[in-house]
Amino acid sequence: MDGNNVTFGKRYLVYLMVFLGMLSAFGPFVTDMYLPVLPGMADIFGCSASTAQFGLTMSLVGLAVGQLFFGPLSDKYGRKPVLLTSLLLFAASTIVILFSPTMEWFNVCRLFQGIGGAGGIVLSRSIATDYYSGRELAKTLAIIGAINGIAPVASPVIGGVVATFTGWQGIFLVLLGIGAVIMAMCFVFRESHPLEKRNAAGVLTAFASFGKLLRLPYFNVYVLMYAFACAILFAYISSASFIIQNHYGYSPFVFSVCFAVNSVFIGIGSGLSVKVKKSAKAAVVGGAMLVATAVAQLVICLHYDAFPVYELLTLLMLTGVGYVFTASTTLTMTEGRAYVGAASAIFGAAGFLFGGIVSPLVGIGDIRVSTMVAMLVCAIMIFLFALISIRRKQQA
Question: Is 249 left (phi over 0), alpha (psi -120 to 50) or beta?
């Protein structure tokens, strides 16, 4: 494994794609799958809505911190042992969650559950970069990016269905089962980061790679491109239920259907981005699409308020997000190939950080206007960073 493209048998290739897809989706499922039961949990535990919602914040913090922790460690100790460690932490915290006596106890456990779930996200990108480069890396990351974009949108819908039959504990039993399946699949996985490629220095030295990566100007450009795309996605996730149900007056069922259908277009955008020869050009296409749809959304919500138009523009917007997700991931991981685990950690943590910042901002004032303004600002930044990246002579 030298970072060049690797040829696998058909069976192992299918296994690897399924494995990486599950790893990528695992973190978002851990975070978002229980969202439909939050109001009910506040009643069950006799706490305020804000206390119940704090569990979401704790899991997001865990996902960000966990990536920064497990990424460099995987550069030193290998992907497989670090992934198994993260999954064991996830399993232990999930079991404790099932017996939580109070919401405060539940929220603390959610922090450790998020840290454990972070291993899958950070290592899905690292493993792909270990095995592939160039166009093959872009194609593999397109699959991972599509799943990683769809999972935060689709997981609450799935969680709502599970909770209907089992209650909130059933959701965490399903998550525990998914974690067990991934752990079992780990034993088939062939270590992608061999001993001779690992960081031979001390543990603290492994974390020093963060500084080396952040001193690479284009690495920062690519990471910020992805982070602003995550901000757009989280702005959409945070506002969609209020806009579709409260403003347009549709039922929760209609909202769930729209939410599920819309998520598919992230995958469509990721797939289409691979058709563009250079990743930087794909980022420009996605950025231009995001600016155009954000401007149109803002104009529409101010002057022509119609749900079909809102929905159509949302589909185009999520397609643009898919373009940017795949392009920025390919560019970032190629630029940071010398420290793949650390690069993946910074990349993933930045996405959750920006998403966490923008989510509460869309609730200020008129949620439609604040959401569209936030999306427009983020889209402009993405487009500017994409223009900067395309100037580079050598592209992934």
Answer: left
Residue type, 361: L
Which ranges constitute the DSSP H helices of the chain?
Answer: 10-32, 38-45, 49-77, 79-98, 103-131, 134-166, 168-186, 203-207, 209-214, 217-241, 252-273, 279-303, 307-335, 340-361, 367-390
Q: Is the dihedral of CA 359, 107, 150, 43 positive or negative?
A: negative
The structure's pTM equals 0.79
Residues 41-63 pLDDT 10s: 888 888 876 677 778 778 888 88
Q: Which two tokens stand for residue 60?
A: 């997001």
Burial class (CB in 10 A: 0-12, 13-18, 19+), 348: buried
Torsion of the alpha carbons at 257, 258, 261 and 267, rounded to the nearest 10:
-140
How far is 85 from 80, CA to CA, in rounded Å?
Answer: 9
Rounded to 5°, angle at Cα 65 from 328 and 339: 50
Count the neighbouring beta carbons within 10 Å of the beta carbon of residue 277: 11
How far apart, in whole angstroms, are the C-alpha atoms of residue 263 and residue 321?
A: 11
**Structure tokens, 322:** 């898919």
Q: What is the rounded CA–CA span in Å between residue 31 and residue 62?
A: 10
Tokens of 174: 């399903």
